[in-house]
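Quick one:
INPUT:
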């Protein structure tokens, strides 16, 4: 995530997170493009074309299979809210607030 923000926006999260609002962070995160490290991971995880999947490298298969296993253990709505709140609090702490 950090390298993707640096690549796409030129933002160093460790320095600028203190001044960034949560809503702004979420908007920037949702706009991360496919030419960033995070974008490439998302593309691997979401690929469904059988021909493309056959051409995946060993590492790409590992990334996708790990994601599919995790996805199979989905978190419920209320639990997801707790996870997101924990993530939000972590960023607030990183920002020193």
């Amino acid at each position: 995530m950090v390298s993707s923000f640096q690549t796409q926006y030129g933002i160093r999260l460790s320095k600028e997170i203190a001044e960034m609002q949560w809503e702004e962070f979420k908007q920037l995160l949702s706009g991360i493009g496919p030419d960033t490290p995070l974008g490439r991971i998302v593309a691997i995880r979401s690929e469904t074309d059988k021909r493309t999947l056959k051409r995946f490298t060993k590492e790409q298969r590992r990334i996708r299979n790990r994601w599919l296993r995790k996805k199979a253990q989905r978190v419920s709505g209320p639990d997801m809210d707790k996870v997101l709140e924990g993530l939000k609090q972590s960023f607030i702490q990183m920002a020193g607030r």
